[in-house]
Design brief:
Subunit structure: Homodimer.
Shape: globular
Order of helices and strands: HHEEHHEHEHEHEHEHHHEHEEHEEH
Catalytic activity: D-fructose 6-phosphate + L-glutamine = D-glucosamine 6-phosphate + L-glutamate
Helix content: 40-55%
EC number: 2.6.1.16
Largest sheet: 5 strands, parallel
Radius of gyration: 20 Å
Strand content: 15-25%
Number of strands: 12
Bound molecules: fructose -6-phosphate
Protein name: Glutamine--fructose-6-phosphate aminotransferase [isomerizing]
GO molecular function: carbohydrate derivative binding; glutamine-fructose-6-phosphate transaminase (isomerizing) activity
Structural class: alpha/beta
Strand order of the largest sheet: 4-3-5-6-7
Number of helices: 14
């Protein structure tokens, strides 16, 4: 049942405020984050972890990249993110103090399952972030942290992605508390951010109409670039993946600072570039850098579509289109910024007359290696 929407993907994008609310439910207790499934692993085991490796594929790997920033910041453990299908083939250094966190919506992705089994054989603690109750990966793992985003039917992942980021942040906050690395004010601020997130998410979902108009004139576009910095970088990668998957348009995401090391040569007159701009209030340094990146590409003819915090006027002289969101904190911004990118892919796919929910050559769950 598409609930009145034209596609499951549209319905699932619109469900994101609830998806986040469901991931958070029961896990914010008296101003703290508490995940009973992690507590069951035993606090000494959580305290002894000296390295975390996040393994996942596709969209889930971008959620992992975003989660890594938060886990390192709050739990002060080095985190690396690796594609599941690369992880096993390089003889990774694993010890009984390593924690492997797998991220998988379906819990059945064969590449990720095989990587989890490889980790288990080496005595590593395995935690599964999964959206599908009793799927194989969470059953095989030492602990399962379910995202509870509800069933995702469209092949392109949307609400599962924001729920995965949310779950990884909760894991970071839980680990930080147990390990004594999380300052009380940082914890209070993160909890406050979470409490307002579903409401802000609803505002991000409401960008649909504006994005539909934007996509309308871009129906013939052959290539789109996405730029972000810090947590905005994996969000840019996700925006590009969505566009490839369902609109069959060549798209690439870049770290904004990397542009001058090569990709800026791609910028030609009229090249559409989405730029994820961090909040100028809470991330002034990053904001200034991104504004200068925008100036660089604008001077070379790019058509800039900036995703900004409401009230950010610094970018206006250099942009063609501005999408305004209720941003606020660097770590939480990409959860909102990705929503207009999801709508953009959906609307371009629709404008090209494609099947939004069932893109060619793709299956919802990839059960072969
Ligand atoms: C993108 C997408 C894929 C999946 C990837 C992992 O929209 O859906 O990139 O994210 O195949 O799938 P799961 O999360 O089920 O392991």
């Amino acid at each position: 049942d598409k609930g009145g929407w034209s596609s499951f993907m549209a319905k699932e994008i619109s469900e994101q405020p609830d998806a986040i609310g469901n991931t958070l439910r029961g896990r914010l207790v008296d101003g703290h984050v508490d995940i009973p499934e992690l507590t069951e692993l035993g606090e000494p085991r959580l305290r002894e972890v000296d390295r975390i490796i996040i393994i996942a594929c596709g969209t889930a790997s971008y959620a992992g990249m975003i989660g890594a920033y938060a886990i390192e910041q709050w739990a002060r453990v080095p985190v690396q993110v690796e594609l599941s299908h690369e992880f096993r083939y390089r003889d990774p250094v694993l010890t009984d103090r390593t924690m492997v966190i797998s991220v998988s919506q379906s819990g059945e992705t064969m590449d990720t399952l095989m990587a989890v089994k490889y980790a288990i054989e080496r005595g590593v603690t395995t935690v599964s972030v999964c959206n599908t109750q009793s799927a194989t990966i969470p059953r095989e793992s030492d602990a399962a942290v379910y995202t509870h985003a509800g069933p995702e039917v469209a092949v392109a992942s949307t609400k599962a992605f924001v729920a995965q980021i949310t779950a990884l942040y909760l894991i970071g906050l839980h680990l930080g508390r147990v390990r004594g690395t999380l300052a009380a004010d940082a914890e209070a601020e993160a909890v406050r951010q979470f409490e307002t997130l579903p409401e802000k998410m609803a505002e991000a979902v409401a960008t649909h109409e504006q994005i539909a108009q934007l996509a309308h004139w871009m129906a013939d576009t052959r290539s789109v670039l996405f730029l972000g910095r810090h947590v905005g970088y994996p969000a840019a990668l996700e925006g590009a993946l969505k566009l490839k998957e369902i609109a069959y348009i060549h798209a690439e995401g870049f770290a904004a600072g990397e542009l001058k090391h090569g990709p800026i040569a791609l910028i030609d007159h009229g090249q559409p570039v989405f730029v994820l701009v961090p909040s100028p209030r809470t991330s002034p340094l990053m904001h200034a850098k991104v504004v200068s990146n925008i100036q660089e590409i604008r001077a070379r003819g790019a058509r800039v579509i900036a995703i900004v915090e409401k009230g950010d006027t610094a970018v206006l002289p250099y942009t063609d289109d501005v999408v305004r969101l209720p941003l606020s904190d660097a770590l939480f911004d990409p959860i909102l910024q990705v929503v207009p990118l999801q709508w953009f892919a959906l609307e371009l796919s629709t404008a090209k007359g494609l099947d939004v929910d069932q893109p060619r050559n793709l299956a919802k769950s990839v059960t072969v290696e």
